[in-house]
């Protein structure tokens, strides 16, 4: 196969795929929905994480009678857990952006 | 909803979330058939109708109903494969069922005077808990006790490992909580706001037609149109978020890190 024939066949392939893409019906974009999902996820995880941590601390405190200490400790741990969930989501967003 | 007999306006946006017995009552206790149960039956009927009637034709050029059913099916299937891989497709029926149920619950709840099943944390909590239990069981079933190493970050220094493990465990338990609160709170907030605006819209009827009340009524009706459109979007996006998170959790259980 000569050089010119090869380029013309690849050109033809490109034209075919372009024409196919033009015919393809517009699909609901999953990317947009996923971005929305990410934001919605991040906002709540931190709040719930902190509240959940405080709740655990509260429960353990009333169990052991160490009123404010464990509440503070687990509140902070819960906050850290919230941050961790947000970081996970951010990592996922990064991977998605790299894939596209 | 908006007015009492004295012409005084009472805005009670929470009233719409009340659960009452349709029949059964005292005798059946918690087994009685409530408005929530009725709407769940309607949701199932509508979902089954869409997919049974939609797929009845099996046409190559689909009818409107068939293409709607196909679009939903393809959309969720593609999402599951993207997030959890080919292995995750085994659990596609469960995820698809979740999506259809939540989407129908959210959308049917937008019909005036209907009841939004997903506005109750008892419902969203139960959905999130089943996901939590299922995913955890899959994790232990696939990996055995090795699944516990999911909670220990591999590349952390030894001193930090216990603290990080506690954080990971807390994060694991936070997931079903935020999973259910996100859906329930979004539904409550959206419907309550719609109801507040709807109550303002009747102010002209309650206080008589002066320029001011007519303006308030007109503005709130005008505001409700985009709000309703937004709620329509939120209804579908929340259903999607619920299942994409389910799939993410499933992926964590299947492939761990």
Describe the structure.
The complex is a heterodimer of chains A (100) and B (257). Chain A contains three helices and no strands. With 100 residues, chain A is mainly alpha-helical. Chain A has one domain. Chain A starts with a helix and ends with a helix. Chain B has one domain. A two-stranded antiparallel ribbon of chain B has the order 1-2. At the A-B interface, helix 2 and helix 3 of A face helix 2, helix 5 and helix 7 of B.
Percent in helix of chain B: 55-70%
Question: What structural class results from the helix and strand content of chain B?
Answer: mainly alpha
Distance between the termini of chain B: 51 Å
- In total, the number of domains of chain B comes to 1
Q: In percent, how much strand structure appears in the residues of chain A?
A: under 5%
Largest beta sheet of chain B: what is the strand line-up?
Answer: 1-2
State the secondary-structure class of chain A: mainly alpha
Determine the N-to-C terminus distance of chain A: 35 Å
Number of helices of chain B: 7
Query: Which percent band covers the strand fraction of chain B?
Result: under 5%
Biggest interchain interface, per-side counts = A-B, 24 and 26 residues
Stretches with pLDDT under 50, minimum 5 residues of chain A: none
C-alpha geometry of chain B: globular
The number of distinct β-strands of chain A equals 0
Protein traits:
heterodimer; A: 100 residues; mainly alpha; rod-shaped; B: 257 residues; two-stranded antiparallel ribbon; 7 helices; 2 strands; globular; disordered N terminus
Short précis:
Chain A has 100 residues and is mostly helical. Helices cover 89% and strands 0% of the residues of chain A.
Fold blueprint:
The complex is a heterodimer of chains A (100) and B (257).
Chain A: H1 3-23, H2 30-64, H3 67-99
Helix pairs in contact in A: 2-3
Chain B: E1 21-23, E2 33-34, H1 35-56, H2 64-88, H3 92-108, H4 121-143, H5 161-201, H6 203-207, H7 211-255
Antiparallel strand pairs in B: 1-2
Helix pairs in contact in B: 1-2, 1-3, 2-3, 2-7, 3-7, 4-5, 4-7, 5-7
């Amino acid at each position: 196969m000569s050089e010119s024939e090869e380029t013309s066949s690849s050109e033809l392939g490109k034209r075919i795929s372009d024409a196919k893409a033009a015919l393809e019906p517009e699909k609901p974009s999953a990317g947009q929905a996923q971005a929305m999902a990410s934001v919605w996820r991040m906002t709540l995880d931190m709040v719930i994480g902190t509240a959940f941590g405080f709740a655990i601390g509260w429960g353990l405190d009333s169990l052991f009678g160490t009123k404010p200490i464990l509440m503070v400790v687990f509140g902070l741990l819960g906050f850290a857990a919230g941050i961790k969930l947000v970081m996970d989501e951010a990592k996922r967003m990064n991977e998605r952006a790299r894939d596209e | 909803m908006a007015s009492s007999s004295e012409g005084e306006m009472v805005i009670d946006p929470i009233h719409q979330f009340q659960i009452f017995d349709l029949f059964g009552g005292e005798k059946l206790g918690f087994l009685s058939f409530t408005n929530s149960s009725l709407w769940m039956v309607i949701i199932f009927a509508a979902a089954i109708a869409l997919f049974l009637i939609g797929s009845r034709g099996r046409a190559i050029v689909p009818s409107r109903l068939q293409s709607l059913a196909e679009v939903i099916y393809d959309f969720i299937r593609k999402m599951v494969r993207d997030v959890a891989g080919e292995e995750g497709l085994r659990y596609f029926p469960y995820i698809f069922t979740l999506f259809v149920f939540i989407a129908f619950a959210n959308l049917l709840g937008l019909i005036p005077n209907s009841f939004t099943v997903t506005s109750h944390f008892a419902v969203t909590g139960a959905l999130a808990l089943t996901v939590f239990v299922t995913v955890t069981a899959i994790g232990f079933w696939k990996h055995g006790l090795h699944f516990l190493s999911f909670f220990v970050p591999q590349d952390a220094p030894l001193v930090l490992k216990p603290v990080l493990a506690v954080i990971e465990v807390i994060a694991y338990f936070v997931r079903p909580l935020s999973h259910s609160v996100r859906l329930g709170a979004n539904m409550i907030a959206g419907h309550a706001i719609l109801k507040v605006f709807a109550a303002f819209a009747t102010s002209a009827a309650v206080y008589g037609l002066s320029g001011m009340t007519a303006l308030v009524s007109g503005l709130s009706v005008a505001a409700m149109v985009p709000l309703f459109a937004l709620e329509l979007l939120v209804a579908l996006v929340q259903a999607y978020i619920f299942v994409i998170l389910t799939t993410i959790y499933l992926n964590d259980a299947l492939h761990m890190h």
